[in-house]
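Record pair follows.
FIRST:
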Amino acid sequence: MATNLSTTQEKRTGALAGLENQWLPFTPNRDFKDDPRTFSRAEGVYFYGPNEEKILDGCSALFTTPAGHGRKEIADAVHQQILTLDYTSSFLRSHPWSSAVCETVSALLPEGMDRVFLVNSGSESIDTALKMAQQYHRVRGEASRTIFVSRERAYHGANLSGVALAGLPNNRRSFGSPILPVVHMRHTWLEENRFVPGQGQHGAELAEDLLRLIGLHGAENIAACIVEPIAGSCGVLVPPVGYLARLREICDQHGILLIFDEVICGFGRTGSPFAAQSFGVTPDIITMAKAITNGVIPMGAVAVRNHIYDAVVDAAPTRTTTELFHGYTASAHPVACAASLASQEIYRKEGLFERASQLSGYFLEKLFGLRGTPGITDIRGFGMLAGVDIDPVVVGGDGYRVQQRLYDNGLHLKNTGNTIIIAPPFVVTKDEIDQLVEIIRNVCTHGL
């Protein structure tokens, strides 16, 4: 709410040495560099701007930081790890921190998912899951299963495999033909579920799209169906009651693997360790990242049902044959593992998943209280994750401009198109939720 906009812009731009050298991801670079909005530090549930402006973190940074910022326990663990074992490759070697992470994560997963492969990001977890699915079918003599089923309005990372799976036009149209054979089901947003908190009662029949694609392409040619339990980055599309369970049934009937992309939902966002537990549906593969280290250091993982690991490993002709020719230089990086172990200990000791479950009712009640605010056309939410659709004509700006105005009024949120996405840290207070909602209301109502 600066009184002198040009002076504020000069302060922002002047503080960024090298601004012209940087090419920012998923950002209108020309507009940003004309009037950058940056953070200089973070603590608890707040970012701070270049002039110490206090900005409430309403999106856990990028769904990454449920325990809040600046956790000394994680910093100490990272510092000690660098002095103890700063790096080793995980090719033909390992270390105790990586196996400890896998044990800790597996204890949070649905029963029967005890095998964990460590990577460095959500995008890498998707690549890894797809390769695992392909190899699983190949070693079982079903190499014709090469097609993947995704959804419209899906986001599965920024690698080329994720682009092939994507159901967001802007994430696809600039990159030519997909590198994978992918077909798409419809997304699950329906008019009948507008302004319905939690799971809508309409739309379970959309899962039958998978049967339609099986009829068109043949089950024998389909490797896996991949969905986010809650489609997050595209605008928080909560699955209708019965939808995920029906996908599970169809996959079981036709020998198709079911993959849950839980890069956003994982580690408590839905009130359970994973959305698979919140919705009572166990997939064959789960991808995860972001909150696995509270966002402190990049890390991701892929968990599989035990029979998938066993099939791939047991198919190798000798004990000295590498079973899966896949991995990354920084897979199971010791410092990332230390950050993950410290983060998981915070989640456990402070009961943050339970807190998310308990706080969800208040969070959603307050957000849904925005119904009737001029320019807000829909609200969706589950757990500690919500999306608010805006009419850009009524609110005086598209989603990009609105998120800029939110920053200027002390609130950090993500937008995708004309949807504002809210995912606060689990350590947020009710008063801070109230503050978050009021800033949204004021920006949409008054165009501040």
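SECOND:
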Amino acid sequence: MDEAVAADQDVGKGFLGSNFSLLAAVLIYVIIVVAAYLRFGTLPEITLGAVAVLILPFAGLILRSKEFVKSSALIVAVLLTYEALQGITGALVTSGNVVSLAWVDNTLVGSNFALSVQRAFLSSAATLISTVFYGLHIFLILIALVLFWFKDRAVYRGYTYSLVVTSYLALLTFVALPTAPPWMTGTAQNLLGAGYKELPTVLQELQKVLLSGESDLVAAFPSLHAAYATLFSIFMFKLGRRYGVVSLPIAGGVYFSIIYLGQHYLIDLLGGVAYAAISVYAVDWILGRLRPKSPPLSASSVPVSEPTS
């Protein structure tokens, strides 16, 4: 019993003592949040970073894995900083330079794809199920981090790096090309609110917390919901075929939900998938270049068999 208590205390000390990056990120996040609120009267979106900073360290403590706590601190720090910057980006954007990509969908499929999907599947059941899938991307990331860490550290490393690269590539795109979702331009209904009302009270409150203070409404392209779901599926396949097959209907549910609920165009979805795939390829290439190569065998190192008489 004493050894278990000592181990828990050691993990806690290790977390506070050696993870300065997390503490610094939290401080930077708070400063940016306060500055944004004082200047623009808005708050950055409370999603991945805020949830992760609450859950991942405790997961490491419960699992008694100091290494997981230390490793998760970096990804939490990056996500916190990313979301704070995304909130500032949303506050700086004005309606004058926001574009709609509805014309791209019309070019690709010859119609208003989001509205067509809504008309084909509109029902209380579809709205409720889609709302649940829409909020899954956050929990998929947290589940993936824990699962990949304990199953395959190489998969965990590739996933975390790809997650970071995807997020920041998207952030640069949001700054360069602010894009409006379908519901904002009137090309589709905003069914997300209707879906919330059909959820149980507890889940309604959870959804409110996850989307409270959402300040970057003009960040439709690329869809990070689609990007994060794609990353989850790609690395589940890297973990194993059975894991990958299980991930497919989950990713498909997220894809359907973002279109059906009127939150993204088809091109936003395709952009999210492309950003995720590009990030995975880039990370794999970089890690492959950095991986130490085995030295070539010299003639003296090759065993020579003795001739038989």
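COMMENT: Residues 1-18 have pLDDT under 50 and may be disordered.
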